[in-house]
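tmp note - HTH luxR-type domain-containing protein
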Amino acid sequence: MSAHAGTVPSPDFSPREREVLASLCDGETYPSIARRLGISRHTVDTYVRRLRSKTGAVSRSQLVVAAVRCGVFDVHAPDAPADRN
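out:
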């Protein structure tokens, strides 16, 4: 990942990849993401591996940075409860 600041073009994330990435940014664990989305923990891991491949991230922290840079996660958004139902 490059060290420059600002928003960069978003890789071609699927809607589910964007959802998993936003959940990771919210601090959710793989098991909690899996329960909420009705998928297995292994499927969450598959989505995370795809996200890492698309972004070049090697850690969860780098995925969060990529999400902010790509506009998937807004660190300045109001701290309101997310609609997760």
